[in-house]
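Thread: quick sanity check before group meeting

JM: Hey all, I'm pulling together slides for Thursday and realized we never actually wrote out the predicted structure for the chain we discussed last week. Dropping the sequence here so it's in one place. If anyone has concerns about the input, flag it before I start.
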Amino acid sequence: MYNVLFSSIERDVDVGINHFSFHLQKGQPFGGIKGIVSGSREVDLIHFISEGSLRYGYWITPGLKYYCVYNSDAELYEIHIDSNGAGYEEKLRRYESQSMLVQYPRLDENDTWYSLTSEIRWYNVSKLFSLTTDDKIAYMDSSITTIEEAKILQDRLQQTVGHSDHDNKALRYAYINFKSREAIRDTHEMEDFYDKSHYLFDVVLPQQFRDSMSAYMGELQMSFINAMFFASYGSSMQWHNLLQLLCDSNRFEQYKRLDEVVSVQINNIPEEYFDTLINRECWTKLLKAHHSQLPNTYNSMQTRFPELIPATAGHNDCDCDSDPGTGPVPDPMLGSDSEIEMNATSDEEDTPTVVSQVHHRHI
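JM (edit): ok, ran it. Output follows.
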């Protein structure tokens, strides 16, 4: 078990630890969260949202001595690791004697957070956020784009103002391009079009995941959480792409494992994100082709979003790297509407669409 201590509450805020959250008011006596059971998890997520701000948070390694302070210049709460063991323990005892600590909730029956992160290792976090070997905290917020989105923005800036700034915060997901020469070889065009096994097992896994399906599944889980916790559109697109690549590969056989991962995700999709972060066409065709291989996922989708259940089973020809939603992406945490401007990455009509700009309008 470990704890996260707070110095003070300088601004009204909703604080979350994994999938639990609570509200704190400015000036409220609060010392932190105690008794966080890490179990076999390798990652936890502490997240914040205040009125008029983006949702932001920190991926952390469970088990360390964490404390939280408010940075008035940046207008956000920051998580740090304590290096003064004696002082930390003394403060913990004092807060506990004054009943200023909130007990981490008992694990729910299905241990939801573990189920959502069972495949994530710190390697996934380090890779995604370009961390050093000593880093144990990774910052994430709703404005951080994927590296592909950042590249499009940089290209636009270069064209319009003559220069661009490199975005060091861009999420470095594995690059997946179903129409690349690596994905569809000149001498195997028909085969590679219908079966993505070569691209998955001979290109993506060895080049971007150290030939590890566990690392691949970890990114599948991280992209989902970043999409659903931070309304990250690029993360949603990556989640769909990773799913499509597995299901379009005839040599992929670990459907039971995939079913366990994805069914839990479907059960935990916020309803307000369904229209904007879920690719309806992709899911309808994916379930049509693989409903017998993904029974739990099929049942979860039938319960949560029955309109996506196909009438009959058939061939899977979905294109999950297209837009998940059909309209503006709402940001319920901000209390605003968000417009997404879509731009193709080339002149081809069937080129995957990528987010190039996000505009937030406060109501």
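AS: nice. The longest strand covers residues 353-362. The chain is about 35% helix and 20% strand.
JM: adding both to the slides.
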